[in-house]
Amino acid sequence: MRFDSVTAYAFGPFRGETLQLAPGMNVVYGPNEAGKSTWHAALYAGLCGMRRSRGQPRREDREFEERRRPWDGDGAWEVGAVIRLEDGRRVQLRHDLAGRVDSSARDVDFAGRDYSNEIMNEGSPDGARWLGLGRQSFLSTACVRQAAILGLLEDAANLQDELQRAAATAGTDETAADALQRLRDFHGEHVGSERAWTKPLCRAREAVDEARRELDRAREAHQQYLERSSEVEEAEAHVHTLERQTDAARAVLAQAEASRAEGHVGRARELSARLPEGPPRRAAEEDRVTQDVATALEAWRSRPDQLEPGGPTIEELETQLAEIDKELVSTKSTPRSSGQGRRRSNVWPLAGAGGVVAGGALALVGFVVPGAILILIALALLAWRALIRPTTAEFTETDRYSALDAQRAHVAHLIDDRRDAERTRAEAARQRDEAAEAVRRAALATGVDANNDEARAEGLLAWQARRIETLAEADLQRASWEELQRLLGERSIEELSEEEARLRAEAESLVALADPTALVSVREQAMTAEKLEEMWRQIRVAREEWRTAGGQLAQFARDLPNVAEAEEMLASAERELERVDRLDRALGTTIEFLKRAEERVHRDIAPVLRETVLAWLPRVTGGRYTDCRVNPQTLAVEVCGPGGRWRRADLLSHGAAEQLYLLLRFALAQHLTKPGEVCPLILDDTLAACDGARKREVLESLLAVSESVQVILFSHEEDVRDWARDRLSEARDSLTEIDAAGVPT
Q1: Exposure pattern of 149-172 as b/e (b: 16+ CB <10 Å)?
Q2: Which residues neighbour 706 within 8 Å (Cβ) at sequence distance 6 or greater?
């Protein structure tokens, strides 16, 4: 098989681009990020397409789609290739990678004959089937990707894993290897290991454990349901108990209400008989007279005493004041003596004048005798001073004038005091006259007959006492009437009696329906309306709690797991675990049996790999390694140099490991491809670890290989491009240079 071309209709960054290929050695050169790896992937996808099956895509398929599907556009993702088979057929493969439906393999020369049925693999055409391989085996043998080389350079031990994977995919002895792999896959898919949590064995054991847990939860939930049901029954019983107590309380209160109504009826009849003429009335005139009497008596009791002021009258004092004024006028014209003598002679006159004033004041306020005595003493002092005046040298006209002036001020003050006393006496007389007049008017209004005001006041007091008794009786009658009106309201006595009979009947009915035990308990509690209201509140709370608990129980019952179903699920899970255990034992026995066949495959393929590698190893390694051997059991590779020292492949340098890897892949491709076909080699930047000389040796080896096998090498190295320009012939080989956009030039 050889590629004539590959077309990226819509693949990665390319749209409608075609890469033409020669049948021999093909070198595709381009700078980094020019799309070489994309063309490498397009060759693989153009030949093999992608599998189409149910369920979620494999991880490698998802990664391939994420890397190679166009980011922009109308959603198309399509690639194709033209290949030439060893039997002479030229086939055009076209793969709709987006829908994975419109894919085909048609003959280019014979009117588009469709060969899709020959190469159907996992729901879509797979050109690798013509090589006796499949998508995965072609990728493991013919396609050497840059990522595989990089992984090899990071850890050369990956070489053994790559050989084992490639050897197990297909080949002449594929029956045992494929059967063993299929058994392993089947075991991994349908049994799994102790730690594969997503596989049937672990799932079956987990299912048994989960079923047991579910059964335990179901039994526990059932026990909780019984407990909650008991709590709901207790809440219901509590509500019924409160209802019985409330009914008994209503009956007791109804009896009390009926008894009160009976008492009201009796009291209403009694009051109605006491007031046959209706409500008592009191005349407004009587109330006015009663008020007048009370006012008159209050004025009589609070009238002031009548006091007669003592001492000289106003006329006498005014006469005395006039005489003093005359003396002052006569004294005013006499020359005055010195100030020193005046000061000595003023003491006694001032003392006498002060005594007169003080005595007059005492007399005015009622202390007549002490006031008169004080006045006499003061006058005697003044008289004595007057008698000794001619005999003393101290008396002067000025002293006499001062004494007269002080005496005049005292007399003027006495006049003012006397006038105030006269006004007070007149006001007291007026009040006493008004009180007496009020008593006389009240006596006339009430019919009290007496000779004087005192007797009239006494008569009014007696009349007032009798009137208070009469008013008290009237008030009692009015209170009785008001009480009767409160009892009756808007009803008559007959209607009140009917109401009492209705209440009595209701009470008897409630008592008949009430629980006797609850009646006794309520009567012992001295039931009141407030207590009944509290009992109603407790009932509302208890009913709400009952309804809530019942609702929660109903919800719990709806979600209640079925114990019988849980037991059946456990039995089913145990049967499934037993089945998987039996399958595990059977597959283990079969795998152990077929391992021997796999070892035989390795023993068969190991000499072939050694023979193929030995033909090229000295040449590509520059004679450093001349021999190799392959472990038939593990396919581990060792090489040996002229010194006879063997070295494991995982201990080689990066360049040597890379060259050995290429030789082994070439050997696997030759060995695994079915007879009559040739598998091309597609290499992506696989010479990065070689030095210049080694690189030319590898290129020359690849050029020699291309005489029988198509080699397609992608590279970004300029020395590889230069080698291709010098060594490749135009007839059988080709050098294709692509620009930075990945387009062949």
Answers
A1: beebbeebebbbebbebbbbbbbe
A2: 24, 25, 732, 733
Average pLDDT over residues 675-691: 85
Q: How many domains does the chain have?
A: 2
Residue-wise DSSP of 329-393: HHHHTSPP--HHHHHHHSHHHHHHHHHHHHHHHHHHTT-HHHHHHHHHHHHHHHHHHHHTTTT-S
Distance, CA of 163 to chain centre: 60
Q: Examine residue 511 and state whether it is found in any structural domain, yes or no.
A: no
Q: List beta partners, residue 20.
A: 5
Asked if residue 187 lies in contact with residue 587, where contact means CB atoms within 8 angstroms, the answer is yes
Rounded to whole angstroms, what are the CA distances from 353 to 67, 316, 320, 375, 385? 141, 17, 14, 9, 12
Higher pLDDT, 211 or 2: 2
In a domain, 407, yes or no: yes
Report helix, strand or coil for 439: helix
Sheet holding 17-20, edge to edge: 17-20, 2-10, 78-84, 90-96, 104-107
Cα 142 to Cα 47: distance, rounded to the nearest angstrom: 12
pTM: 0.45
Confirm whether 26 is domain-assigned.
yes
From the list 355, 345, 354, 357, the residue with the least C-alpha distance to 386 is 345
- The pLDDT value given to residue 118: 92
The confidence score (pLDDT) of residue 345 equals: 47
Q: Are 426 and 325 in contact (CB under 8 A)?
A: no
Backbone angles phi and psi of 92, in degrees to 5 = -100, 115
R_g over Cα of the chain: 71
Tokens coding 69:
């599907």
Residue with token string 């080389």: 149
How far is it, in rounded angstroms, from Cα 77 to Cα 81?
14
589-to-15, 189, 198, 683 alpha-carbon distances in Å: 53, 17, 23, 41
Question: Domain limits at 392?
Answer: 314-446
- Cα distances from 361 to residues 315, 352, 425, 426, 485, in angstroms, run 17, 14, 16, 19, 69
Residue ending a domain, among 408, 429, 446, is: 446
- Answer whether 370's CB lies under 8 Å from 313's CB: no
pLDDT surpassing 90 at residue 167 = no
pLDDT tens readout for residues 719-738 = 999 999 999 987 899 999 99
Phi (first) and psi of residue 180, to 5 degrees: -65, -45
Question: In angstroms, rounded to a whole number, what is the distance separating the alpha carbons of residues 718 and 715?
Answer: 8
